[in-house]
Amino acid sequence: MQSFFKRAKSLVMSLEIIKGILDAEYAEKRNSIPVFGAGDTINVHVKIKEGNKERIQVYQGVVIQRRNPNSMGESFTVRKTSNGIGVERIFPLLSPTVDKIEVVRRGKVRRARIFYLREAKGKAARIKEKRS
Amino acid sequence: MLGLIGKKIGMTRIYETEGKAIPCTVVELGPCVVSQVKTIENDGYEAVQLGYGDVKEKSVSSSMLGHFKKANSTPKRKLVEFRSFDKSVSLGDTLSAADIFADGDMIDVIGTSIGKGFQGVVKRHGFAGVGGQTHGQHNRARHPGSIGSCSFPSRVFKGIRMAGRLGNARVTVQNLKVLRVLADKNLVIISGSLPGSKNSYVILEK
User: Is ipTM > 0.90 here?
Assistant: First the structure.
């Protein structure tokens, strides 16, 4: 039993070491990202490289989930309906291709992952705005 | 060949400027103590013995304690010999990650793979199993099938791949890139995965 706790402790310690080394490097990037969550409508400014030219494309949609919070692999999924077809894009939060994130509208939802939006049509697919 | 002993900490990822995410492993590397320098006159071959990882004095035999005392060091848990060490070192020297490795180096990593226990041929040797679920077959989907001929040779040849213990063996992974050396923390970030579990010892060779 003692060895179990010892092992658990060392594993937690190794997690902290990993977090510690890269956190400082990506702290600036993380701080520049506004607070957003499922239900919010956001603009994601994505860097796109075409040959030698680089331009920025804005992708607007509703955030339906955020995954692996506070880790290097944190990502979020943005859903929008383009010409009647549902489109979902997954962005790594700390990726250099994600130039900027803007929150357009805060949505009021009851769960962290709003996958029901995929099946919802018409009136059911609306999200109420959060009143602050 | 140069090398050091380290401990696998775990995995994370780093983003390149183009947005590519590189999976990478963090290794605590050193500081290692030169516990013995073997010479042709004394030992018949040249090698450098390095020690890594602290251990309580009471759990080390008195003969080993004497060995460490010669090198003027505290007892170490792991001792590894490196043949043809391309760096002149003397007994009792301390080597840290930055002394040996630099960013961008290509290295080999040796570790002990995670033990998988007694495994069948599908997992252990990549056999495809015995076909599908039809044609009367119902109870041997993951079996090896035939292991040889009939009355000639009337035996099974040596070396036929069968079920057995998998993992817990020495594994070398070649040509991994050192992404970063964090000298102040004695940590190294290596691209890709390494053999073994977290907190297991790994040997890095250049």
Answer: no
Sign, CA dihedral B118-B124-B129-B133, equals: positive
What sections of chain A are H helices per DSSP? Answer: 2-31, 116-119
- B2 and B85 in contact (C-beta within 8 Å)? yes
Long-range contacts made by residues A5-11, C-beta under 8 angstroms, separation at least 24?
A7/B199, A10/B198, A10/B199, A11/B198, A11/B199
Chain A environment of B198 (Cβ under 8 Å): 10-11, 14
B110, B172 contact by CB (below 8 A): yes
Nearest to A14 among B10, B14, B16 (CB): B10
Task: Please identify among residues 67-86 of chain A the ones whose CB lies closer than 8 Å to any CB of chain B.
Answer: 71-73
What is the nearest CA distance from A129 to chain B, expressed in angstroms? Answer: 33
pLDDT in tens, B163-200: 999 999 999 999 999 999 988 888 999 999 999 998 89
